[in-house]
């Protein structure tokens, strides 16, 4: 078996810092297991799905946060506790990890144009599952009119409205693309007047409380490290963590917080994480 690649120069590992590290991500398209593979392919070791003790896990994503919220906080009674998913396989994997029933998501039968029969079936309720009690929005690379119509009508019939995150953009290939907050969640919010989804990713403090409940960390001795002010740094500030560290290898730029009257200002910044090692 070939040796794993060395960590990239702009990263840190728990063995280098001597600290507990938790990778917190808003990307709902990947599960914790997916992120473990991704990080290890980059030469960054991490643990996930450790049964004993589970607090040794080192990845906490918005899909997992949503699954925890639905199963352990909402704890909806049967039978009206099924989830209609607007999102990808990462959400489905985390819902399964909490033994939650769902429909939609990556179902290939929904990856098509809407038909006159669909309009009639949705309007009459024949195409709607009566057990759906939650509509969960994440980033969906296959979003279409049929899926949005189903989500809208579930909400109209009283389903709870949740979002893995409300990020407006998704960074990829050195630029930005539409995020969950600009697609699925935004479209349904526009249709269902006066309703906004409960967001379960950064900077939502529902996510902070879920992470704290699992890892039992001291907030005053914890630093949030990230490259985005409106999610990462805001998450740490509103969570009253001991520190926030902006890293300039991603979205954030110094001019975003320099000057008077800035709303979100990190406690410190570095050009890249490797700079902390001197």
The value of Rg in angstroms is 20 Å
- Provide the succession of SSEs: HEHEHEHEHEHEEEHEHEHEE
Low-confidence stretches: none
Tell me the strand order in the biggest sheet.
4-3-5-6-9
Shape: globular
Secondary structure class reads: alpha/beta
Fraction of residues in H or I helices = 25-40%
The whole-number mean of residue pLDDT values reads 89
Number of helices: 9
Describe the biggest sheet? Answer: 5 strands, parallel
What amount of the residues lies in strands?
15-25%
Tally of DSSP β-strands? 12
Distance between the termini: 33 Å
Spell out the blueprint of helices and strands:
Layout: H1 14-17, E1 23-25, H2 32-41, E2 59-61, H3 62-74, E3 82-86, H4 89-97, E4 102-104, H5 116-124, E5 132-137, H6 145-156, E6 160-163, E7 169-172, E8 175-178, H7 184-191, E9 198-199, H8 205-215, E10 223-226, H9 229-238, E11 243-247, E12 268-270
Parallel strand pairs: 1-2, 3-4, 3-5, 5-6, 6-9, 10-11, 11-12
Antiparallel strand pairs: 7-8
Describe the structure.
This protein is α/β, with parallel strands linked by helices. It is built from nine helices and twelve strands. Helix 2 (32-41) links the parallel strand 1 (23-25) and strand 2 (59-61). Helix 3 runs parallel beside helix 4 and helix 3 (62-74) packs across helix 8 (205-215).
């Amino acid at each position: 078996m070939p040796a794993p690649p060395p960590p990239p120069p702009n990263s840190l590992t728990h063995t280098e810092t001597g600290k507990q590290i938790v990778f917190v991500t808003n990307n709902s398209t990947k599960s914790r297991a997916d992120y473990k593979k991704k990080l290890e392919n980059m030469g960054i070791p991490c643990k996930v799905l450790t049964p004993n003790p589970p607090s040794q896990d080192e990845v906490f994503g918005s899909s997992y946060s949503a699954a925890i919220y639905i199963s352990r906080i909402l704890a909806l009674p049967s039978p009206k506790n099924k989830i209609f998913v607007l999102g990808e396989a990462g959400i489905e994997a985390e819902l399964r990890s909490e033994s939650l029933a769902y429909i939609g998501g990556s179902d290939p039968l929904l990856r098509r144009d809407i038909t006159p029969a669909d309009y009639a079936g949705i309007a009459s309720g024949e195409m709607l599952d009566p057990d759906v009690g939650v509509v969960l929005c994440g980033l969906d690379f296959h979003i279409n009119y049929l899926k949005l119509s189903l989500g809208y009508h579930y909400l109209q019939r009283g389903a709870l409205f949740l979002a893995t995150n409300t990020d407006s953009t998704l960074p990829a290939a050195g630029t930005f693309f539409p995020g969950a907050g600009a697609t699925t969640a935004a479209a349904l919010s526009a249709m269902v007047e006066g309703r906004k989804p409960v967001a379960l990713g950064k900077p939502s403090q529902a996510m902070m409380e879920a992470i704290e409940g699992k890892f039992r960390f001291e907030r005053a001795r914890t630093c949030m490290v990230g490259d985005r002010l409106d999610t990462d740094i805001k998450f740490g500030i509103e969570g009253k963590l001991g520190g926030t560290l902006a890293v300039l290898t991603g979205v954030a730029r110094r001019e975003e917080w320099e000057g008077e009257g800035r709303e979100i200002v990190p406690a410190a910044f570095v050009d890249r994480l490797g700079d902390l090692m001197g």
